[in-house]
Amino acid sequence: MQFKVIQFAIFFLGCQFLCAQEAKIKNPILTDKFIISAGLYSPLNNVKLSANGTASARESRQIDFDKHFNIADYQNTFSMNFTWRFAKNWNVSADFFRIKRENQVVFEDDIQWKNVTFKQGTGVEGGFGFSLYRVFFGRVIARGNQYELGGGLGAHIITIFPFIEGQAYINDNDFEFKRHEVSSTLPLPNIGIWFIYAPIQKLSLTTKLDWFGIKIDNFSGVLWDISPTINYQAFRNLGISAGYKFLDFGVEVDKNKWQGNIDLQFQGPTVSVFGNF
C-alpha cells in the first residue's frame, strides 16, 4: 500500500513537472519571425455609390449596384497575409484581396450617370472591381507566455472602379451605345490593435481591428476592418486558420475623375493555410 502511494506521488509530481514545462513553451505564432498565409475569402458585398453627381431615379442619389445589377451574393476570392517580426517588439504586415462582380440586367428605373441616361427597360451590363492592399506597422504593448497585445499605424490602399454599359440617351433625342466607368485609388490611413491568445501550442485565437475616420485633402470618410481568427498549428511550421472578416467604409471623393460617394461593405468567412518560421 505504501509503495503504491509512493508510485502515485511520483507520477503526480512528474505530471505537474511536464505540464509546467509545457506551459513554458510558447505557441510558435507568438515567437516566429515570419508568418505567411494564403487562402479563400468569401464575402457578401454591399456596394452603393454615386459618381460625378449621378443618381438613382425615384430613390436616393446613390446607385445601389447590389440591387440594380443583382450582384449581392457570396463570392470566393484569393486573399493573403504576410507578417514579419523584424525586432523584438516591432513587426510589419501586409494583406491583399481583390473582387470583381458584373451582371447583365434590364433596368426597372431610369439611371443617370454623368451626361447620359439609361432608361427604364434598357438592357445593360454593369458591376464593379475592387482591390485592397493593407500595410501595417505595429509595436507590442504587452505580452505574456500565452498572449500578445499590440497596436500601430497603417494604411488601406483601396482601388474601386464601377461601370455601366449599354444603350443610353445622350439627350432627349440621341440614343447610342455607351460605356461609363470611373475609378479611384484611395490611401486611407488607420490606427489598429491586435490581440493573440494561445492557451496551448497547437491552438491560438487572434483578433485584428483597424479604424479610420479623418478628412485628408480631397476625400474623407470612415473605415472599420475587423478580423477574428482561430489558428490550428498542425505541424511545427504549418497550420490552418478559419475566421471572419468584416470591412466597412464610406468615403466622399472630390477628384477630377470622380466626385461622389462610396458606401461599401464586405463580410464573410475566411479559410487559409499558414506557414510560420
Descriptive notes:
There is one protein chain. The chain is mainly beta and 277 residues long. It has a single domain (2-276), classed as OPCA outer membrane adhesin/invasin (Lipocalin), CATH 2.40.128.100. Helices cover 10% and strands 66% of the residues. The protein has helices at residues 2-24, 65-69, and strands at 34-41, 44-51, 55-56, 63-64, 77-84, 90-106, 111-113, 116-118, 123-143, 147-169, 175-181, 184-197, 203-216, 219-235, 238-254, 259-276. It is elongated and about 80 Å long. The protein starts with a helix and ends with a strand. Mean pLDDT is 82; it is low at 2-13, 15-23 and 53-60.
Considering the chains and any ligands shown, give keywords for the structure:
277 residues, mainly beta, Lipocalin, 3-stranded antiparallel sheet, 2 helices, 16 strands
Total discrete domains:
1
Q: How do the strands line up in the largest sheet?
A: 1-5-6-9-10-12-13-14-15-16
Q: How many separate helices?
A: 2
Top CATH class: Mainly Beta
Characterize the biggest β-sheet.
10 strands, antiparallel, barrel
Uncertain stretches of 5 or more adjacent residues: 2-13, 15-23, 53-60
Number of strands: 16
What is the residue-mean pLDDT, rounded to a whole number? 82
Radius of gyration: 25 Å
Rounded to the nearest angstrom, the distance between the terminal CA atoms is: 50 Å
Strand content: over 45%
* Secondary structure: helix percent: 10-25%
What would you say the CATH architecture is?
Beta Barrel
Shape: elongated
CATH topology value: Lipocalin
Organism: Aequorivita ciconiae
Protein name: DUF481 domain-containing protein
